[in-house]
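Here is the promised in-class demo. Please do not try to memorize the tokens; focus on the logic of going from shape to residues.
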């Protein structure tokens, strides 16, 4: 990246890992479990018919749970003592019928909850991705790509288990627990109250372990994000790794990250291993109460044996929700930790926002003016200070200077990727802050040395500049960029797949496709940031000729280190440390024997020496 690259993009420990608003210092309030369920409901209510049907199934399941214990009680207290052989067939049919009905209802409820869960996940993931698309460039400078990918894929995916099955279990258990508790109180309130005395202990234990599990699950998910980030970096940079023979080094780095993930998972398992036996012990305390006190009541004649057996069966049904909840709490806390990470992104506000009264920028001539502009990347020294610059409409303006002089920063300020700290930038008299971003950026075409091509065909990548362009317009743009010849040489022509990031193309070919994409957009303002840096001399000459025709009547900003590419510019500005040292045409700057002349002499003697050596 020429000019001044934002240095905050490099990973530093703790960045993007919950430190306020992704490293900006602003505290983000942790998302609550209640907030998580409220947002799930907000998305789920759009499929309320499925929810209503699922709830009906849950109520029916809870009611059917009563049948088998009642059949057991009736068999022990009535059928066996009365030797009612004719009733046995009905008892068996009742048990089997209840089992079949329960199976059907559980199938329906599970299928419905899966549909609801997937619908919610679909909306969650799309909302998160859409919000990320609307955040400004500075947000992506501050955060690691792998971490953001993990939030969209892994963290949203974690919610699936909670929504699809755990919530179904929660609903079922809630109705079952309530109905059975009321019935048991009606059978014998003394025995039921003794039993329920163990439940406050279960709740306290759950709250104590829940907080620790949530913290541990967050560490697991952060370590997963770290692994994902390292994996993304290493796979995209595999050629660099192999060229420096760093395979073992990268394997060790990856191993260290996976070890942290392993340790975090072990900590979660240990908490779960301690929590579940405590809950099971409290459940056995309840069973002991029923056996001892129930037997005492039976021996006194206050309760039948069948009632005790039914009571024990209901006790198991009453304890099942507690057992389930002890397992569901893991899913809830894991989901809550994932939800926190998702909401950290959703609660992040873009620094670059449109005013409420922003207007649509009309078609521009391209007269751009910087007035007293100060700019600084977060936490770094000033890049521009009291900077003034004028780009005349319809003219080619070039910026040259040492690396870090602010050239690319200027290019990034024009489409409002960043806002200056102070001062103003106008286009045809319109302040950038007063116009709608879309209407501004659709009139600007950018060709950078950092070539971005998407996995697809050559034609699709060129058409990215104008989705409605015809095949003839795509071909014309490719010809203007001197790309049609090599494209036509491929067996599939414009339908040739380029691979991930254009891996199947040479650097010069990728650059010409990116230039064709900008040409197809037909913008009023064109920014060329080292646009011909990857081209050979012959291709560069063809490109310059094509651009000379294309740029007529348009405003063009050219950033270049190779001075041969800007000699025909209408005006050249020489920058150092964010200030303009000198300006003029190529010939004027050579005559004054200043900084431009020094840069020119440094380049062309080397070129001549290289040509002589060849």
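The designed amino acids, position by position:
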């Amino acid at each position: 990246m020429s000019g001044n690259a934002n240095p905050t993009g490099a990973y530093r420990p703790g960045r993007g890992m919950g430190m306020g608003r992704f490293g900006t210092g602003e505290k983000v309030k942790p998302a609550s479990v209640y907030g998580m369920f409220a947002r799930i409901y907000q998305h789920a209510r759009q499929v309320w018919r499925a929810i209503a049907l699922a709830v009906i199934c849950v109520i029916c399941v809870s009611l059917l749970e009563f049948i088998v214990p009642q059949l057991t009680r009736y068999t022990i207290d009535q059928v066996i003592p009365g030797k009612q052989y004719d009733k046995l067939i009905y008892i068996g049919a009742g048990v089997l019928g209840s089992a079949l009905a329960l199976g059907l209802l559980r199938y329906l409820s599970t299928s419905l909850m899966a549909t609801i869960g997937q619908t919610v996940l679909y909306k969650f993931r799309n909302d998160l991705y859409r919000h990320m698309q609307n955040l400004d460039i500075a947000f992506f400078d501050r955060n690691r790509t792998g971490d953001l990918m993990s939030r969209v894929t892994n963290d949203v995916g974690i919610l699936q288990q909670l929504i699809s099955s755990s919530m179904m279990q929660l609903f079922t258990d809630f109705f079952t627990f309530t109905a059975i508790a009321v019935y048991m109180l009606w059978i014998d309130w003394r025995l039921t109250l003794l039993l329920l005395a163990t439940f406050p202990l279960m709740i306290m234990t759950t709250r104590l372990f829940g907080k620790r599990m949530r913290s541990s699950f967050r560490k697991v998910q952060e370590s997963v994000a770290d692994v994902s980030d390292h994996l993304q970096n290493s796979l995209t940079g595999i050629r660099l790794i192999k060229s420096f023979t760093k395979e073992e080094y990268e394997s060790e780095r990856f191993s260290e990250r996976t070890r942290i993930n392993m340790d975090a998972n072990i900590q979660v398992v240990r908490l779960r291993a301690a929590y579940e036996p405590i809950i099971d012990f409290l459940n056995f305390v309840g069973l002991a109460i029923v056996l001892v006190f129930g037997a005492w009541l039976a021996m006194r004649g206050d309760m039948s044996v069948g009632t005790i057996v039914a009571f024990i069966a209901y006790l198991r049904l009453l304890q099942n929700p507690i057992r389930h909840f002890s397992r569901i709490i893991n899913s809830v806390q894991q989901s809550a930790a994932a939800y926190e990470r998702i909401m950290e992104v959703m609660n992040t506000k873009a620094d670059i926002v449109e005013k409420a009264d922003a207007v649509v920028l009309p078609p521009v001539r391209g007269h751009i003016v910087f007035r007293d502009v100060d700019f600084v990347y977060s936490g770094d020294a000033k890049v521009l200070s009291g900077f003034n610059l004028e780009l005349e409409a319809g003219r080619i303006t070039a910026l040259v200077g040492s690396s870090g002089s602010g050239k690319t920063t200027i290019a990034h300020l024009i489409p409002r990727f960043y806002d200056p700290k102070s001062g103003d930038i106008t286009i045809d008299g319109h302040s950038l802050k007063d116009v709608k971003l879309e209407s501004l950026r659709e009139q600007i075409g950018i060709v950078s040395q950092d070539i971005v091509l998407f996995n697809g065909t050559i034609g699709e990548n060129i058409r990215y500049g104008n989705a409605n362009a015809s095949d003839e317009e795509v071909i014309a743009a490719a010809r203007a960029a001197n790309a049609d010849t090599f494209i036509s040489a491929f067996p599939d022509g414009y339908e040739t797949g380029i691979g991930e990031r254009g891996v199947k193309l040479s650097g010069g070919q990728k650059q010409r496709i990116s230039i064709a994409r900008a040409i197809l957009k037909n913008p009023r303002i064109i920014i060329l940031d080292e646009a011909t840096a990857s081209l050979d001399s012959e291709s560069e000459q063809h490109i310059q000729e094509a651009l000379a025709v294309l740029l007529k009547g348009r405003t063009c900003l050219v950033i270049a280190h190779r001075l041969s590419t800007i000699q025909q510019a209408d005006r050249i500005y020489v920058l150092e440390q964010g200030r303009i040292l000198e300006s003029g045409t190529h010939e004027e700057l050579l005559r004054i024997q200043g900084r431009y002349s020094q840069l020119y002499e440094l380049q062309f003697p080397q070129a001549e020496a290289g040509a002589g050596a060849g």
